[in-house]
Fold these 3 entries.
Entry 1:
Amino acid sequence: DGGITQSPKYLFRKEGQNVTLSCEQNLNHDAMYWYRQDPGQGLRLIYYSQIVNDFQKGDIAEGYSVSREKKESFPLTVTSAQKNPTAFYLCASSIGGQYQPQHFGDGTRLSIL
Amino acid sequence: GQQLNQSPQSMFIQEGEDVSMNCTSSSIFNTWLWYKQDPGEGPVLLIALYKAGELTSNGRLTAQFGITRKDSFLNISASIPSDVGIYFCAGRWAGSQGNLIFGKGTKLSVKP
């Protein structure tokens, strides 16, 4: 089946620790995105990538880092600099271009120990 | 920055009733999308709109791209229990570099 796979489903972070969230897609989509979702809030864009080896900061990039070494993969690292990392993280992809809808994975819930 | 105003924030309805929700923006949008999110899952695309005045249906769901290009509406007819969830509007405007802006969602509860 074609789709977007996020792993793990649940993740716990200790103080001062970096953690990496995985996002893989087999849809052959060019663009990939990371969003953060807090309770009662809409989705906020962290980083996006329109093409391999290139990515751009979104609205709330501080404390996060990404890489895009392969078309199908767009991992997100939540660094120790992110002081409030507890949230639901969603990865999305689209064929690319300004008018294409984004399709989402099932998310990773990150909590602090 | 640009924000979307989505209303109502929540709705409690009886099974079989029709539902209506909307999103408004202060800028002109060129794309409107409607998503549904179930608890603990990612949003699922319901309807995509690309032209002012466009009216598109997906089963019992109907969405419209407002003619002013600053709003969009989603209607659900004859609601059923599985319609429960959070509905998000999202849109693109000329200054968003192709990225989506999301409303804060409408939480729908359906009483059998």
Entry 2:
Amino acid sequence: AQSVTQLGSHVSVSEGALVLLRCNYSSSVPPYLFWYVQYPNQGLQLLLKYTTGATLVKGINGFEAEFKKSETSFHLTKPSAHMSDAAEYFCAVSAEEYGNKLVFGAGTILRVKS
Amino acid sequence: EPEVTQTPSHQVTQMGQEVILRCVPISNHLYFYWYRQILGQKVEFLVSFYNNEISEKSEIFDDQFSVERPDGSNFTLKIRSTKLEDSAMYFCASTLAGMAGQYFGPGTRLTVT
């Protein structure tokens, strides 16, 4: 069984500040890990993913995440927040096998203050 | 860039009515999925579909639900007799064989009154 916990349902940062969105996962099998972003009234857009290999993965819009197996974490970061980053972010896990379902966290709403 | 499309964007129906939600996955994708998100709750997996059959379904996906790929492009979710608790945003997703990560459509907001 798999699960995802996202710490903080709401995160607020100032424009230009570091963004850190936390994600911890539980998986009985080696996981694939994902971050998705959802802008208002839109679908889910894949930001980045970890499957195998390099544990630091880079995604779109300057975001990156690091897979830490010992901490069962996959936190999302961006060095400098932009107003356009305001959205809801979802961490998700799937089993290490193509075609498997995604199990989502509850989501974190990111607010960027000017 | 290819994208998953869904119709309608919003559907209002009365309790007990049948609804069909439609999706057009990305053309060369082979795995198809439905998820739903009840307002204020997590995105939940409903069903996955591969090679013209259901490959996995959740406990939510009971006998009231069915999926079909009626032709080479559409993927539908049917709810036979809607209940108030079926009100949610329904997302379709697809992925390529051998690829991790799914591409999501914009969703259909289903309101059951």
Entry 3:
Amino acid sequence: KAGVTQTPRYLIKTRGQQVTLSCSPISGHRSVSWYQQTPGQGLQFLFEYFSETQRNKGNFPGRFSGRQFSNSRSEMNVSTLELGDSALYLCASSILGGHTDTQYFGPGTRLTVL
Amino acid sequence: KQEVTQIPAALSVPEGENLVLNCSFTDSAIYNLQWFRQDPGKGLTSLLLIQSSQREQTSGRLNASLDKSSGRSTLYIAASQPGDSATYLCAVPFSNTGKLIFGQGTTLQVKP
């Protein structure tokens, strides 16, 4: 069974631009979560989607948004990029989400903001 | 507020040694605890998930234990190999949601 895939793997943007990241979950998984990883803050939760609905949201500004499609694929969008948005963005999928499932992570998208 | 701590931040051992990585959490009312491995610049690989009703989980040379009452989990790696070199992270769900709260990780180096 194919794992979680994320595209693109690397991105370089400049301040003020916007970016869209994509995540395809494991087949049969309906929950997708997004995390930001930085050396200073570690892994921080952005949001979780289940059946096209945002179920949980972390403490990030409104510039960070996401959505989920009917095939469970998810996209994350960051508008008006800031230097501090440079990070590894990871998505994770699980069968039903929530607190009981094992979460499986993708390889991440490395975003660099110049 | 749930906080997850991993000490030490870094660990270096010679090949073949058995070792223990530590994870502590402040709120003992957890549903489960998950251990992950992360290689440099890569995503996270799930190693073990221990449900709150369990005390141990084993996978190959890895054994994870959970003591909710003391707010601690340990990951035991037997007969360490250079290929075990990576950062190991533990995480617990926030309340009954899918949001994971991670520790800062322990970076392990196994020297040949």
